[in-house]
User: Fold this.
Amino acid sequence: MIKNALQIENCIGLLLRTSLALTFMVICNIAFAQVEESKVTKAKLPNIVFILADDHRWDYLSSMGHPFIETPNIDRIAEEGVLFENAFVTSSLCSPSRASFLTGQYPRHHGVKNNFTPWNNRNVTYIEYLKQAGYQTAFIGKWHMPGGIPKLRGVDSFVTFDYLGGQGAYFDTPYIINGTKLKVGETPLLGADVVGYITDDLTNFAVSYIEENKDKPFALYLSHKAVHLGMQPDAEVAGRYDNKKVELTKEADSWVAFSDGNFKHFLWSSLEEKVKDYAETAVAMDQQIGRVLDKLDELGLAENTLLVYAADNGYLWGEHRLIDKRWAYEESIRVPFVVRYPKALKQPGRRSQEMVINIDLAPTILQVAGIDIPDHMQGKSLLPILKDEHEELRSAWVYQYSEDFPYPVPAQTALRTKRYKLIDYERGKDDELFDLQVDPKEQNNLIDDTSMTQVYARMQEQLKQMQEVISQPLPAPTLIMKE
Amino acid sequence: MNWLTKTINPQWLLSLSILLLSVIMTLIYDFGWRFGLPVEIRNYVGLILFFCIMLGAGVGYAGARVNGAKPWQATKIGLLVPVLWYIKEIWMASEIFGLGAGVYTGLQGFSLAYYCFIFLVMGIVHLGYEIYRKLVVQNERNRWRCTGYFFLPLVLVCSMEAIALIFFGFELFLFQGFLKVYRIIFM
Assistant:
């Protein structure tokens, strides 16, 4: 009896111990599996690389048929991705456009309306969302917004410069890393060389950053000074196009940069010579973009990396007898916009005619990263277009330029549809209406053309309506990290 | 020609001719492309216009002096083209920024530097003319003593700029100071 009782007791003990051991194993397994799953999820997060040029207009690419410029690396992104031939900025000026790329908002909402109105650091950038989602993040390059260099939330490595009012110089710019000012020649990132030419330096920092973070999901914002004034290429490229013949548009001449208000842009040479400098500076930048592409290939990251190349605005080279950007004319508002994302892309090498605007960048990046697009972003994600060539994005959008004293350009609002453009000047110039299908160079103002009365009225009404829509107060961002 | 010299004071003739030339060159330069004028010609026209704006004051000054104007009167005559060009620039800016801000654009470093340059040009012409009178027309009284005032604008502007830079740490007329004052007044 006693023996039986002991046996039963032993059996129960054995059962209990076995159950405990099994339970422990199951718990361990579940926990381990969760850790593994989390690791996988993180590993699967795509890397994000956004490269922003300054003043690079849409048709100064060999892939856009430019007569002599050579941009094989940007072309390569296009061949392996999608080239958006109708990409624009909502305000053609450095500071407002940069803020729009970062926030996905029109200037009236992020507040950087011109080169006076400061960046409000309560603005939430797409980088902040990525950081929250577990990304390593870096902002490398030109910040150039009024109000000084902020403590940008969500950015782990903030390498920039405030030299020459934030413009930086092509040679020997001193850099700033996370608020600490360095001397000329000092590197902000260990292992990255400072060679003195800004495009090469910024690329060195970017490449070093990619290498350092190759095993983690990272988001890199690489913002070049090139190809902004004074358009200086490096020694290797300088003079490459000296013997090329530059064909100016019919209304321009060699000295148009000296006429009227144009002289305020310091183009102290003939227009043809300056165009060559511009093209050479773009080539020097393209070569460095090639280094970023090579590094992604070398580390096996290309497949899982969303890569976007764009510019903050275009540039007028004598069209309408104007220099610079700001105006709502095509050469000023239209930018290169190339996206490569091998993992989700349908038909690489495709050219999309959909109208993309700079505020689309942030929603696109967030959607690719699997983050819900917040309501305070006004742009649209391009991911559906990347996945499906037939997807339609928008039929019209609004351009706004606020006065930027003392540059002699009137404040203006424009409605750009796929066919027409209406430019409404606040003062100082008569409004303009163009049929871009028959007049892509915008030479014939149809505003007084009686056959266009209905189109004009319809465009006016649509502009008014769309202005109301984009001016509506936006919901406050739910995410604001600590500085 | 006889009618011209009777109607117009000969002291003003060269300055007015430069003005007329500037107007014609402006019209050709700005609108010639609409009528198919080759770019090569427009380039030459642009150069002539540029020299009218930059050196016209010196030519006008010389014309006035040769025709008997005193330095002060010749300076006024020489300033004809620069002042009208300046008014045109201000008028264009006023259309965009409003009258107050438009007039204020006339105080930007570019405009001030332009006037410093114009006075320098007239100063050089003045000096050349006085040397000519000293050497060729030997019984003339020497007027070299008023040469200095042509350099006054340059000295004045540079001094103000230097003082602002040294004592207040920002430049005055080009961007920082100029825009700061603009913000205070107009924004």
